[in-house]
Amino acid sequence: MCGIVGYIGASQAAPILLDGLGKLEYRGYDSAGIAVFDGEEIQLKKATGRLKVLSELTHDGATMPGTAGIGHTRWATHGSPSDTNAHPHCSKGNGIAVVHNGIIENYLKVKKKLTNKGYEFLSETDTEVIAHLLDYYYKGDPLEAIIKVLHRVEGSYALGIMFKDHPDQIYAVRKDSPLIVGKGEEGNLIASDVPAVLKYTRDVYFIQNEEIALLTREHITFFNMDCEEIAKESVTIEWDINAAEKGGYEHFMLKEMYEQPATVRDTLNPRLKKGKIVIEELGMTPEEIQNIRKIHIVACGSAYHTGVTAKYVFEGMARIPVEVDLASEFRYRNPILEEWDLVLIISQSGETADSLAALREAKSRGVKTLGIVNVVGSSIAREADKVMYTWAGPEIAVATTKAYSAQLIAQYLLAIHFAQVRGTITEKEAGSLLNDLKRLPDQIELLLANKGKIQKFANRYIAARDVFFIGRGVDYAISLEGSLKLKEISYIHSEAYAAGELKHGTISLIEEGTLVAAVATQEDLYKKTISNILEVRTRGAFVLAVTNEGNTEIEKAADYVIYLPQTSSYFTNSLAIIPLQLFSYYVAVGRGCDVDKPRNLAKSVTVE
Ligand code: M6R
């Protein structure tokens, strides 16, 4: 959470900082601030609320002269969103300015020491200790002071730092929070994520933990914690710059939903060679695949939901036992990991703090790890033994859609591949599954084209108080995701239940008119789900059913039916998610919610 930018170059810094922060606002958006060296002093401007408040305050940066500066968009952890708590934070007299993403865990202890030494704190943030501690250690050499500070603070951080005494320099350092450095033609930049620099450069350095970058107008130099200069290679970013723009859509979420057919193709096609699945990046021999004892899928939020789906797929197809864990639980529960286990860490951002910690936990136990990650060069991508990229491109809306779809595809591919190698499916079955996979993009397009029907239906439910999602098997997994989508962007209370579990308590919440979305795509469970539909309908629920084409019998039980094109029962989630995403989207739009930036959330959860 929180977005950081920095710029030093030939152009005016403030407009570039604001532009970069605009690309990072998905990371946090309760307040924002910039610090610019105006030739004499470090000038600060901060504002509570969305970035546009700060932009208005500074006339899009025009009122802040200077060609070097740092900026921040905040997702509050310590101290409420306010002008005072907004970053940058400064030492006395604005001698040193700091922007921070992460958490300084021992800040209270450090704060106490500094207070005893006469330092005055203005904010409630953990970050302010860094500004004062830098001042405490600073004796003329910024690098030396930064290294001393890093030895004192505990926790996670990405920092952008400016010293008034060294106006031609910007420093950047990270530990367990993302930070990149961009090398531009007319200046150099730092940022929490690639989209913030794409307008100015495609040449990017990924800073590793405890590496320090020193940026001047012309040069970028890297140091380790022993103050020794280190060599680093830049990477050329291939992303289409338009991928991070709305491109005429009202919201990023809508645009990203419409990108799903392409995302599925891009994740699938590079792994299909002459009609066979080839996952080169997996780096596992057939013997190793045959020997897998158990798969552990570890992730958070929607990525976790793809894991719940994949459990049914891996177990059904490849007959490998699967445990799915929330990363925040896995990391602390002392999981039983054995030699032939495989740990899959699923993450769009590749920076989710709990998922990263879970990955490290698994690695420390000597188990093989595979990251399924969207952001190239992110921490999970770099640290996992192997990485399989989901080629979804930048996802900006906080509510994930296309990355979710790509994560499903990556896991389907793995499952079919494992099943083939282990001989649990025949070549003919594998061929038919691949054909179904290849048809998914067109089928998703078809469902998206049907958005009008769902929009109409959604408009009837903008005032709903509670919505329940039910299903069995993979339909239960899709219910989890459907429910999360609705609640995170529309703020309507919603829950997902395994359909057979409702009558063990939750059914008491069903009242006249309560909306229940029932997903029934599994032919072997279809009749059982119909019974569950009837149970809630008898108690007054209004039932929206999502099922496969041809299952018209459901019309007798449900009030409204959405039909999905035919595919393998393993892959129905890739289709069922489309009407559920559209439903959530239109309900949220109808309620006037900020769809792309729901309250209290951030796209990338880089704190525990
Ligand atoms: O970047 P990650 O995939 O690791 O993020 C995990 C979750 O934070 C994420 O899926 C979250 O649940 C989404 N906002 C849901 O739409």
Tell me what you see in this structure:
The protein is of the alpha/beta class and 608 residues long. The strands form five sheets. Strands 3-2-4-1-10-9-11-15 form an eight-stranded antiparallel β-sheet, with helices on one face. It has a seven-stranded antiparallel β-sheet with strand order 5-6-7-8-12-13-14. A five-stranded parallel β-sheet has the order 19-18-20-21-22, with helices on both faces. Strand 13 and strand 14 (229-230) form a beta hairpin. The radius of gyration is 25 Å and the shape is globular.
Provide the fold topology.
Blueprint (H helix, E strand, L loop, with lengths): L2 E7 L3 H12 L6 E7 L4 E7 L2 H7 L10 E7 L14 E2 L5 E9 L2 H10 L11 H10 L4 H11 L2 E9 L6 E6 L4 E4 L3 E5 L11 E4 L5 E4 L4 E4 L5 E2 L4 E2 L15 H7 L1 H9 L3 E2 L2 E2 L8 H6 L2 E6 L1 H18 L3 E5 H4 L10 E7 L5 H12 L3 E6 L5 H5 L2 E4 L12 H21 L4 H23 L1 H9 L6 E6 L2 H17 L2 E6 L16 E6 L5 H13 L3 E7 L11 E5 L7 H19 L18
Parallel strand pairs: 18-19, 18-20, 20-21, 21-22, 23-24, 23-25, 25-26, 26-27
Antiparallel strand pairs: 1-4, 1-10, 2-3, 2-4, 5-6, 6-7, 7-8, 8-12, 9-10, 9-11, 11-15, 12-13, 13-14, 16-17
The chain binds 5-amino-5-deoxy-1-O-phosphono-D-mannitol (M6R).
